Amino acid sequence: MACIYFIKGITDIFSRLSNAGFFLWIDLSACLRSPTWEGEDELKQALYNHGVEMSAGHAYHDEKPGSFRFLFSMDRDTVEEGLRRVIDFYETRRLDWS
To answer: Around 74, how many Cα atoms within 13 Å sit in the side-chain half-sphere?
Structure first.
């Protein structure tokens, strides 16, 4: 939950009307069924099915599959819910496929 504490400190410097801008790269490669760009596409769809939509690293010319862009420019409740879903997904999927 370090991300949430960080967000508390920056609430005065971003526009609440924006839904893009501040982001963190998160490594979900432990959740890939295969370490390929196709595996990343499948993972992105699985995240979407879990209620999370994030941009995959491939769209930003990342060097390896599994990185996703977590935006935190939304209101606090939305960010916390999104983070809760990502953590839940990661813990479940990582255990299932590692």
So the answer is: 9
Q: What is the pLDDT of residues 5-38, one digit of tens each?
A: 444 544 444 444 545 568 889 999 999 999 999 9
Residue ranges of E strands in the chain: 23-27, 55-56, 67-71
The vertex-47 CA angle with 43 and 50, nearest 5°, equals: 140
Q: Which amino acid is at 63?
A: E
pTM of the model: 0.74
Instruction: Count Cβ atoms below 10 Å from residue 30 Cβ, excluding itself.
Output: 12
Strand partners, 71: 23
Residue 86 has phi, psi (to 5 degrees) of -65, -45
**Closest by CA position to 39, among listed 66, 16, 2, 20:** 66
Positive or negative torsion for Cα 61, 19, 14, 50:
negative
- How many whole angstroms separate alpha carbon 73 and alpha carbon 21? 6
